[in-house]
Design goal:
The chain is about 80% helix and about 0% strand. The protein has about 100 residues and is an all-alpha fold.
Length: about 100
Amino acid sequence: MGGGFYTGIAQLVEHRSPKPRVVGSSPPSRANIEDNMFKKFVNYCKACYNELAHKTTWPTRAELTHSAMVVLSASLIIAIVVFIMDFVFQNVMQLVYPS
């Protein structure tokens, strides 16, 4: 038990001992990462432009005007319905709770 035990501990200590640090950084590596990120960003912007300019179907002026009029009409109808309901409920509440 004598020699083998101490050899095992020595190997364990050597395995867990900190390794010498590498002195200095690698600037070219950082520059490559930043350059790669910039290229990815530029490619993303190009892809977005390509999608919007060539693959997206934009409505015509007439379609856009028609859609805007439909939204405006629906909004006015809903506003009128809410106004009428508010007026009716206000009068009903005055009948139930006279002031």
